[in-house]
Amino acid sequence: MPIFMVERTFAEELEPNFEIADGINRINDQVGVRWLYSFLSADKRKTYCLYEAPSPEAIRTAAARAGLPADVVIEMSDRVTPDGALSDI
């Protein structure tokens, strides 16, 4: 399944918790999207998230249902490791 990086910008500081994450995961399951993990910016107003999904549209649909922004959705194709090796995702 393709891997996507999603950039999100929030109007307010994000306060993640189990209930929020669980709700997002339930919505994602409905459209075949799997949240792998996220990075949170120092100011807690941006996230950079990795997802497995059938398409960018599936990610945008899940985000809209969850009331989340999906400012940028980019499909990833390869991974570069610290030793310079290139591999498929």
3D architecture notes:
With 89 residues, the chain is α+β, with helices and mostly antiparallel strands. It has one domain (3-88): 2-Layer Sandwich (Alpha-Beta Plaits), CATH 3.30.70.3090. It is built from two helices and six strands. It has helices at 18-31, 56-66; strands spanning 3-9, 34-40, 46-52, 72-76, 78-80, 86-88. The strands form two sheets. A four-stranded antiparallel β-sheet has the order 2-3-1-4, with helices on one face. A two-stranded antiparallel ribbon has the order 5-6. α1 crosses α2. The longest helix has 14 residues, at 18-31. The radius of gyration is 14 Å and the shape is globular. The model has no long low-confidence stretch (mean pLDDT 94).
